[in-house]
Amino acid sequence: MSTVPQITLNNGVTIPQLGYGTFQITPETTKDAVLTALEVGYRHIDTAEMYGNEAGVGEALRASGLAREEVFITSKLNNSFHRRDDALRATQDSLSALGVEAMDLFLIHWPLPTIDVDYLETWKAMIEIYEAGQSRSIGVSNFQIPHLQRLIDETSVVPAVNQIEVHPYLTNDAVRTFGSEQGIATEAWSPIAQGGVLEDPVLVDIAERVGRTTAQVTLRWHIQRGDIVFPKSVTRSRIEENFSLFDFELSDQDVAAISGLNKDERTGPNPDTFDYVPE
Questions:
Q1: Could you list the active site residues?
Q2: Rounded distance, CA 266 to CA 83, Å?
Q3: Of all residues in the chain, what percent carry a pLDDT higher than 90?
C-alpha cells in the first residue's frame, strides 16, 4: 500500500496529503463509495453539509472497522448557516450525521461577500466551534486574498486550510503563495478541472513518457507542488488509480511545463461574486 505523505497544519494537526472527495456522490451511494476508498487505503475523506452525504460517510467509517483516529474527516458549513447561532446548530447537525464527537477539519464553504451576513461573524463562530473541541482544526474554502487578510487582521486565528479551485488551467498561484506565507495549507478542489485537462497534449506527452495516465500525472503535479488533493470517483479501478501516486516522480521541467498551462480558467463559480444560499 502506498504511503501517503502527511502535512502538518498551523495548529500541529496532521492531514494526509491525498484524500477521497465526495462532491456529487449521491447520499444513496456514498457509503459504498467511501468504504471502497477506505479499503483501497485512503485515510482522509472530504465531505460537506451542502453535499447531503455526511451520513453516508459516517456509515462507511463505522462499517470499515477502522478506529476513528485513523481517518481524517473534513466537512464544510453550508451557505445558509453563516450567522453565529445557525453555524453552531449546523455543526451539531454535521457531528450527528457523521456520528463523530469531533471533525478533524471544518471549513466555511464560501465567503459569500455580497450577502448581508458578514463572513467575519461566521469565522468567529468557527473559532467557538474549534475552542469547544468540535473540530480539531478550522479553515475556509474559496476565500480570496482580501477575505483571508481580513480574517487574519481582525481575529487571532489564522485558518489552517484554504480549499480552492486549483488545476493546470487555474494554478491560482497568488492565493496559494499568500496562504503559504501566512501558514495556510492549500487544498485543491477540481484538481483535474472536472476532466477538462486530461487530453491536453503536454499532459499526454508526459504521461506517455512516465507510463502513467494523465490523471495520475496531474494529481502528482499537485502533490509535488504541496497541494492537498482529494479526487473523486465511484469506480474502484479509478479510486485505486488515483491512489497510486507515490511510486513515481515528475521532473522539475515537467512540473514547470504543467504549471505553464495556466489560463486562469475556472470550472466553478468566482468566489468574489458567488452568493448562492440554499433555501
A1: 51
A2: 28
A3: 97
